[in-house]
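DUF397 domain-containing protein, Longimycelium tulufanense. Tokens?
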Amino acid sequence: MTGLSAVSWRKSSRSGSSSMCVEVARSSGWVALRDSKDPTGPALVVSPEIFDMFLRRLCQG
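Tokens:
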């Protein structure tokens, strides 16, 4: 895995200028999540399959 400092982090456009968000970075073999309030803090790294399952569950309620 490449270093996380070189990846492009994104957050929802619905979050506006709020800094209380989860940011996401995707690569070919992983997805990383971090707290936008602490961009130099730890990140949770999971497989794309796990992240996609997480998103499906969120959409299901």
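The mean pLDDT is 88.
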